[in-house]
Write a structure and sequence with these properties.
By secondary structure, the protein is α+β, with helices and mostly antiparallel strands. It has one domain (2-355): q2cbj1_9rhob like domain (Jelly Rolls), CATH 2.60.120.620. It contains eleven helices and 14 strands. It is globular, with a radius of gyration of 21 Å. It starts with a helix and ends with a helix. This is Fe2OG dioxygenase domain-containing protein. Residues 338-349 have a biased composition (Acidic residues).
């Protein structure tokens, strides 16, 4: 009885400390937060047209964590470790696999945040997403902004894992990509494949790199390998990975990838980084480049905040769009998995740019 009481007290202390540090952590690890930080400061603004839900989300997440005593206490100290890397035909690293990338309690936090998101934003933040062109799909819960506000320690870990992969891959030197802490979070998604049997091949077009965490034990499902096709790979050779639970795969977003046929429960947590700031709350669930272009320009041109996208103080330190963001057409280095509708001239330009590296 005494041990049980001590365990409960210990968990309450952990949760209280997390609450106290939430604001500071979110500010520290989300420097590209100018379009949503007022939500955290004012503890309001999470309205998708069906009412204000900031307090509801906060209560839901905290209650869920308080019920996760065993998971909180079971976390073991594990150091993230580079497991493997994959290079393309031009000797550029396109993928880094990292073991011990996320802890059991962080996995629980992700699942609870996803459940609370579906509870209060069932229409605007959940999508039974079908890939009509390539087949398959997944049930996707969009958690960007909510992740930074309510699970900042998880987002801090996402940044750390991205930085570890970025350094190992040499993406700064090789491809001149911005480091993770200088990128914004485009989307954070909890993915469940229960209703789908595969995920068709696609590319995360417009993002720089994707951080994908394995939440499920691979022994619980058959098939479901993550596959990747590096650009210019001889004979279009595919590479397959079946990530271990708590590991992460960090890869160049515009590289063609998908998931093979599967049976059984498969849960993943994916995050995409891009050159813009964190996508604002009132953007679409997975904001597009053109949408952010419009948003930034609108912020610079007007002080009318009727849409409540941001507050006046957010405009005082807006970096000039033209100076700080280059026209983004794939990677600065030209590395990107081009789309079929690209013209021959565009493809030749990309290939010529790659040849210069």
């Amino acid at each position: 009885m005494v041990k049980s009481f001590q365990a409960i007290v210990f968990c309450v202390v952990i949760i209280s400390c997390r609450e106290a540090k939430a604001d500071d952590t979110a500010q520290k690890w989300s420097p590209r937060n100018k379009y949503w930080r007022h939500l955290l400061t004012e503890q309001s603004g999470l309205d998708d047209g069906n009412g204000e839900h900031f307090d509801d989300m906060q209560s839901c997440v905290q209650t869920a964590l308080s019920e996760s005593n065993d998971v909180l206490l079971q976390d073991k100290t594990a150091v993230p470790t580079i497991v493997d890397t994959l290079t393309d035909s031009q000797n550029r690293t396109v993928l880094v696999e990292i073991g011990n990338a996320i802890t059991p309690s962080q996995v629980e936090s992700v699942k609870r945040l996803a459940a609370c998101t579906r509870l209060y934003f069932p229409e605007s933040r959940f999508d039974h997403r079908e890939f009509t062109m390539s087949g398959g799909g997944n049930d996707c819960t969009f958690m960007n902004i909510l992740l930074q506000i309510f699970s900042p320690e998880v987002f801090e870990n996402v940044i750390n894992i991205a930085k570890l992969a970025y350094k190992k891959a040499g993406w700064g030197e090789q491809l001149r990509l911005r480091p993770p802490h200088m990128c914004g979070l485009r989307t954070a998604e909890y993915l469940n494949y229960k209703e789908f049997k595969r995920l068709g091949g696609h590319a995360d077009t417009g993002s720089l790199f994707t951080v994908l965490f394995a939440l499920s034990d691979p022994k619980l499902y058959q098939g479901g390998e993550f596959y990747l096709l590096p650009r210019d790979e001889p004979d279009n050779r595919m590479y397959y990975f079946k990530p271990r639970q708590y590991s992460a795969i960090v890869f160049l977003s515009e590289t063609h990838h998908g998931v093979t046929d599967l049976e059984g429960p498969r849960e993943m947590f994916t995050n995409e980084f891009w050159v813009y700031d964190d996508a604002p709350w009132h953007s679409s669930t997975r904001a597009e480049n053109s949408e952010m272009d419009w948003f930034v320009q609108r912020a610079e041109e007007t002080l009318d905040h009727a849409a409540d996208y941001y507050k006046e103080e957010d405009l005082t330190d807006l970096w000039p769009f033209e100076e700080d963001i280059e026209d983004f057409d794939g990677y600065d280095s030209g590395y990107g998995f081009y789309e079929d509708e690209s013209s021959d001239d565009e493809l030749n330009a990309i290939e010529d740019k790659n040849d210069e590296l």
